[in-house]
TrEMBL record, chains A, C:
This is Glutaconate CoA-transferase subunit A. Its EC number is 2.8.3.12. Pfam families: CoA_trans (PF01144). It comes from the Bacteria. Keywords: Transferase. Signal peptide: none annotated. GO terms for molecular function: glutaconate CoA-transferase activity.
Automatic annotation (TrEMBL), chains B, D:
Keywords: Transferase. InterPro entries: CoA_trans_fam_I, NagB/RpiA_transferase-like. It is an enzyme of class 2 (transferase). PANTHER family: ACETATE COA-TRANSFERASE YDIF, CHOLESTEROL RING-CLEAVING HYDROLASE IPDB SUBUNIT. Its EC number is 2.8.3.12. This is Glutaconate CoA-transferase subunit B. GO terms for molecular function: glutaconate CoA-transferase activity. Pfam families: CoA_trans (PF01144). It comes from the Bacteria.
Length: 272, 257, 272, 257
């Protein structure tokens, strides 16, 4: 586990073309690190969202970092559809692997358990399946009822890198995630896990039983970097609330093609 | 704390059309033990909280995006796991298009490879629509752009071919004009009631698919004075915790902390 | 959610013949409740262990409560093989469904996710599989490598009742489990969950983010009962240590057929 | 704190046979980043902690049953998930019977329906034996009741038929008499070294299966004075945290708190 000098150092570990896994906008997005990826001019990312994204995906798409996005949805909440995503979708310049939330959870869970696939209920009859040749319908070996004969299985999702923001890490690399256990799943499934945190503390986060319950162990953490306010203008657990006005500023600027203004709106919420 | 600014002893103002909607949605939740509501869904959220308030503690409500009304501690998958375990009795879905077979489209218009319009995506619909017994479709606007003969893209299907386990599915459709029940055996909607101030003709004119019609279509019931007081008082204050702007606009309510 | 008057009241909710799921001896076993089941003369239980058992299984087997045990192992730790289990195994009077830990985790995880089965690596070539007709070998739809063609799938395990002991519950039925997340899985998978606790507290365990991370929500909890020291002579998290000498007393007494003395040794460690 | 009661400036007492075993096991862990050790395994646990102490921080050890040396926070499945993810480099297994094809029996003797003897069961062996690259078999006793031509019950197989993905498997066998390496391609053990005070003949006399023999069989290396000091000092104190009785008996050590 490495404590990086800064966020630029951290994102330098994400190569062009990486399959990059991220949490939803309400779940600890590494926005400062996303700005750093944009600044570094990263290209060809396969973004996989557990299970959705919004501002983060749109920043990376707007800046040309993304070739493929695999997600159950993209939304800016009250600010609607992310404009760069919408434009790229219509232009056909972005490969979109539409999924549904539990299929993404299932793919990550399969990777977590070290198995090649997991079953998911539903989906059959939706057009999602027609556009996902990597999903299969198989005979159900354990039917619940006579009509329960066919079921979807999805392959394990093993990202190259998981990237997220959390309240704190300790010097060993243990990371407090609390109830946001999809961050644990992201880290279990990914080959490398990069985390930005509000603070790096000197105490051992695993030392107290009450604290340990919400900790991602250092075993899964490749590198951390300090980034106070690193999820702004999105929210972070009980530490700070999302700022929909800033997200709306992003949407307005990018809708008229003014990426620098959009990035400036986001950057304005980052700590110096 | 209730933040209803109106003195208690005045006659309540007549129900706002959205209060009729909330009430109609809430009626569809009767008998549910667990209701979950997706993010950014103030009207279904209000309806669920009203159903809870009227259930004498029997109904539990999970509002995604709410700190107070979220009971989950196993991360983002818990809602889907919980629904798959059969513990969620009702859920709300919507669509940019909805057709007469209750297929919903949350994804795009036109060719998916080069869509004329793109939307957020399916979220959990392609799954929850199969495993939640009572899925209530809700769309406040009601016109032929939305209610189409056939959706351009099936994000989640209303019916399923044989051989697929499906304990759940569409139960009803509530719009700004009416309530329709979905008959799963026939795979069709049937008009159940029309909201005050609207007509059957208006519904049919604005619906692009065929609807079964009973001999006479009743008016959608409006909330009683006591239900309205409940909605505008404690329920509004709870709604304001998750949807402050919505609650302030509709009820003049502030959060109950 | 019901707060029961006492432990007897709680175990009255476990009918004869129930499929009863329990944690391992080191993971929060409801020993007081197990004594109550023995006293109530419960019969025909299908005990399913996530993933192993020891003293608890042996108490229930010794008292004739168990028809079937599904487990990866039974052990009393330093006190060796549980004597009642060993005797019943040799006599052929107990149906033993031998498993391996990850197959049990997979079965419970499938139930948790609401799917009918989950894949598990390994197992093929072991005699476990020859004695588990409910496990299947299927074609792997997503091979990792050309030789990766066959894989085991196990059915979802959906117990009638999960029973365990935890440090505390609140008045709503939220239960602190901390890092013992197999208790969460037990509850997710089971139709009903019964929990004994050291104490019932007046504060809301979900109110604080730091505490919430280790809480099983009341949504999954059918009933709780207060039972101070309810896991003794086994241990409970950081609250009290196991007492191997008492477990050894159990083993010695039951090895010579003296069940009353064995039960007395265990009962001697319970609170009045 | 080290609790070695012996003054530092005396010549160390010669290695105890169990210290030779611990050292031999530890040598087999060289280069591992993550080693996990099952419950009630004091000798493998000591070996893993010695490997960690000699690794300059590169080797992480998880002792199941230890509060201090457990990094897991996702419940009982995390060890198996973690191994399935390919993160566990080495694990120890044992058997009531072990045969020349490295099949292990942890379950029963005789007919499984009416066994002559019953044991605890397979635990995680039927899985970990497949997914952990370096599985080290360990049994201190060495006789023909244990090392049999063919186990009565295969709890976990040493080799697997084609068509099954198996990145892991048997690496070596360490007993109170010797170290054997397992050749996965040939599916056979090969004697690697015999512990001080024992002979090749003694090994063969007490082994019920055929073993490949090199032209000359070296003596198992004993720990150097500095390794012995490490083992009897800081490692012993760590061992005592999980295995107080074992550490007190072998090293005279008390836990380092």
């Amino acid at each position: 586990m490495t404590v990086c000098r800064d966020v630029g150092d951290l994102v330098a570990r994400i190569p062009d073309g990486a399959k990059l896994a991220v949490p939803p906008d309400y779940g600890g997005v590494a926005v400062t690190a996303t700005l750093a990826l944009v600044e570094a001019g990263r290209r060809g990312l396969h973004l996989v969202c557990l299970p959705s994204s919004g501002l983060q995906a749109d920043m990376l798409i707007a800046a040309g970092c993304v070739d493929t996005i695999e997600t159950a949805a993209v939304t800016l909440g009250e600010a609607g559809l992310p404009p760069a995503f919408g434009r790229a979708a219509k232009a056909g310049t972005l490969r979109i692997l539409d999924a549904t939330c539990p299929a993404l959870h299932a793919g990550f869970r399969a990777a977590e358990a070290g198995v090649p696939f997991q079953a998911v209920r539903g989906i059959i009859g939706s057009d999602l399946l027609r556009h996902r040749p990597d999903w299969r319908i198989v005979d159900n070996p354990f039917p619940e009822a006579p009509e329960d004969r066919r079921i979807v299985v999805v392959p394990a999702i093993r990202p190259d890198v998981a990237l997220f923001h959390a309240p704190r890490a300790d010097r060993d690399g243990n990371v407090w995630v609390g109830r946001r256990r999809e961050l644990v799943t992201l880290a279990h499934a990914a080959r490398a896990t990069l985390v930005t945190v509000e603070e790096i503390v000197d105490t051992d986060l695993l030392a107290e039983e009450a604290t340990a319950a919400g900790v991602l162990p250092a075993l899964y953490v490749t590198a951390v970097a300090r980034a106070p306010g690193g999820a702004r203008p999105l929210g972070l657990q009980d530490l700070y609330d999302p700022e929909p006005a800033v997200v709306a500023d992003w949407a307005r600027a990018v809708a008229v093609g003014d990426l620098p203004a959009g990035l400036a709106a986001v950057r304005g919420r980052q700590a110096a | 704390m209730s933040a209803d600014p109106r003195p208690i002893d005045t006659v309540p103002t007549p129900p706002h059309p959205r209060e009729v909607l909330i009430h109609a949605l809430s009626d569809l939740l009767q008998g549910c033990r667990n209701v979950a509501v997706g993010a950014v869904s103030p009207l279904p959220g209000s309806a669920a909280l009203l159903a809870r308030a009227r259930s004498d503690g029997a109904c539990r409500v999970t509002l995604l995006g709410s700190r107070r009304h979220t009971y989950f501690t196993d991360g983002g998958r818990e809602l889907f796991d919980c629904a798959g375990q059969g513990r969620i009795d009702a859920f709300f879905l919507s669509g940019v298009q909805i057709d007469g077979a209750a297929n919903i489209n949350l994804t795009c218009l036109g060719d998916p490879q080069r869509p004329k319009a793109r939307f957020s995506g399916a979220f959990g619909s392609a799954y929850l629509y199969f495993v939640v017994p009572r899925v209530i479709l809700f769309r406040e606007e009601h016109d032929r752009r939305i209610f189409v003969p056939k959706v351009d893209y099936i994000s989640a299907p209303g019916a399923t071919a044989p051989g697929v386990w499906r304990p759940g599915g569409p139960h009803a459709l509530v719009t700004g004009l009416c309530v329709m029940a979905f008959d799963r055996a026939r795979g069709r909607f049937r008009l159940r009631s029309v909201h005050p101030g609207h007509t059957v003709e208006e519904v049919l004119d604005n619906t692009g698919f065929d609807v079964d019609l009973p001999d006479s279509v009743p008016e959608t019931p409006v909330p009683t004075a006591s239900t309205l007081a409940l909605l505008r008082g404690p329920v509004a204050a709870e709604v304001a915790e998750t949807y402050p702007r919505f609650a302030a606009d509709l009820f003049g309510a502030t959060p109950s902390h």
